[in-house]
Amino acid sequence: MVRFVGVDAMIKLVRRTGLQPFLTGLCGAIESDFSRWQNFEKTPRIASHSSVGVIELMPTSDGDHYGFKYVNGHPKNMKEGLQTVTAFGVLSDVSTGYPILVSEMTLLTALRTAATSAMAAKHLARPDSRCMAIIGNGAQSEFQALAFAAITGIEQVRLYDIDRAASRKCAANLAGRGLDVVICPSAQDAVSGADIITTVTADKQYATILTDNMVGEGVHINAVGGDCPGKTELHRDILLRSRIFVEFTAQTRIEGEIQQLPENYPVTELWQVIAGTEAGRQSARDITLFDSVGFAIEDFSALNFVREQALSHGIYEELDLIADLHDPRNLFGVLGHGSAPFRGPQQPPEAA
């Protein structure tokens, strides 16, 4: 039997732990795995693009466990009453190849993206950062705000979305959580006075969510929305003024903001900052940019963290996913021909 964490179980886990402690714990798990980056297999995600979206597989292994995530990105879904992003993941034991966890990852991806963003800001933003702007107030925005509050000490969140209803939704969800939330009439107004700017929009196109004149010295930019070929959010001039940090360079060159720059343009991988082999922010005047596209190691960390939480709290189901046989050679026996082959509680179907 394989442990399964579905949507209901994921909600129960987060509620049992508390949302912000869950985000903090998840951030710690990701940071720990980034500090042992060299132990992992690394490859750009495998993407299947269509005219309306993308479906991707994101695999990695540390030699002991193998994990992958299936995830889609379909911006047009929102108009049809569907989610833009859905996902599930699998964690397996490398020594046997058996899956040990199957989990929903629609909710978990939002949580791990926010935790990764805040982890990056902990290392790259000014330590005295207290005001954050979020441009794009869809499904990810509340997670970003609460992760930054828990991990970096953000106190004020300034919201802007072309759909004002999205900003009102975000503000309502953040009410009573200790943040000063301001809905702004424009992106320019939202970034005014912000120490950290998060861009997290969904349109699958080259866009200019931030122009060069909107970004002053000392700001940290958390660019989340640019995450596939042909989809960016920042004016190229901002990149040229920034110290740029990425997850896995080979993937970000294809999908991130830096697809606007020459292939040899210098960037720093975030794990190097965490490991202490490269500098992060070097002065209060630096503009730092985390060009985040999401990487498989973050999902691996999230799946391991959820597995630990699920086992600790006893919140999971069991899936009858693998035929556990007395004689591994007698797979045919599960069809009901011959003696009962199962070791576990399963019973073979009645013979036809």
Report on this model:
There is one protein chain. This protein has 352 residues and is of the alpha/beta class. It folds into two domains: 2-107 and 298-323, 2-Layer Sandwich (ornithine cyclodeaminase, domain 1), CATH 3.30.1780.10; 126-295, NAD(P)-binding Rossmann-like Domain (Rossmann fold), CATH 3.40.50.720. It contains ten helices and 17 strands. It has helices at 7-17, 19-34, 106-124, 141-152, 164-174, 187-191, 236-241, 249-255, 270-275, 296-313; strands spanning 2-5, 46-49, 54-61, 65-73, 87-93, 99-104, 131-135, 156-160, 180-183, 196-199, 206-210, 220-223, 232-234, 243-246, 268-269, 288-291, 317-319. The protein has an eight-stranded parallel sheet. A seven-stranded mixed sheet has the order 2-3-4-5-6-1-17. Strand 3 (54-61) and strand 4 (65-73) form a beta hairpin. Helix 2 crosses helix 3, helix 2 (19-34) packs across helix 10 and helix 4 (141-152) packs across helix 5 (164-174). The longest helix has 19 residues, at 106-124. The radius of gyration is 22 Å and the shape is globular. The protein starts with a strand and ends in a 33-residue tail after the last strand. Residues 347-352 have low confidence and may be disordered.
